Amino acid sequence: MSDFRDQVIIITGASTGIGRATAQAFRRAGARVVLAARSEDVLRQLAHELGGPEWAIAVPTDVSDATQCEQLVQRAVEHFGRIDVLVNNAGMVVSGLFEFLQPGDAEMQFSVNFFGTLYCTQAALPFLKQSRGVIVNVSSVAGLIGTPTTSVYSASKAAMNAWARALRAELRRYGVGVVTVCPYFTSGVQLAQKGILRQGSLHHRPGRPRRQAPGTQTADEVAQAIVKATHRRPRIVVLSWAGKWIWRLDRCCPWLIDWVMSWGLNRLL
Ligand SMILES: NC(=O)c1ccc[n+]([C@@H]2O[C@H](COP(=O)([O-])OP(=O)(O)OC[C@H]3O[C@@H](n4cnc5c(N)ncnc54)[C@H](OP(=O)(O)O)[C@@H]3O)[C@@H](O)[C@H]2O)c1
Known about the structure:
The chain is of the alpha/beta class. The protein has one domain (8-268): NAD(P)-binding Rossmann-like Domain (Rossmann fold). It is built from nine helices and eleven strands.
């Protein structure tokens, strides 16, 4: 495990799943962590478990509100005096066939996954320039290929990927790294339970239990990959053997991925 002693890490979406596991992994690596999400009680309990105010603080934040993102960064700097890493992990999913999405669904999707990332990054940037730090964006394999029944989720992650690529070039001269991490399916997380589920969603099919896809990782495995990527600062990390294969296949024969997705969808709907 890399050494992050004396470093201060902000993690959005730290109350559950990948964000929570990432906070725990950074603490094990010696970092001080700033935990952001909307669930205040859960965050406070986690901050306590991670060692209390010397090591971890909870800052209730809705990332879709730019003012709250600025307050998150201010609070982190007031308490710990610096910011070395921002992990933009907060996310939600709108799931269902595009034709059945409701007015406001796509806006909600982008306000959390995409605009939340932009707001936190813009607020943290002056401090990341001082520390020559790293921005880590938790994207998705869905953002690389566009997955049916999560079309606007895929679009929000694709937007994040394109923005991150441009930002990486802009910030290179300041020594600030920008890393995109694309997890594949992750087990034991609540993404779908807290999301917006519309007709055709594969996340909610009463009487038909969801089978775990081959190549699914645990939140702890994704967290370890995030910590490693923060240390090494690659442009992009695609996770799990299945995620890597899909990504490679899509670049050499996209028609095959199109065909498999249509075929799979017809079987599942
Ligand atoms: N699960 C997967 O299979 C998978 C695959 C690829 C990528 N990802 C990505 O991984 C990231 C983490 O998701 P997860 O799988 O760990 O799901 P999760 O357990 O549902 O975690 C989502 C986190 O985001 C927070 N959040 C949601 N809306 C927010 C808002 N408006 N403001 C602040 N925080 C908010 C949630 O906390 P509160 O509800 O307390 O605010 C929670 O801590 C997401 O960006 C997701 O797109 C997940």
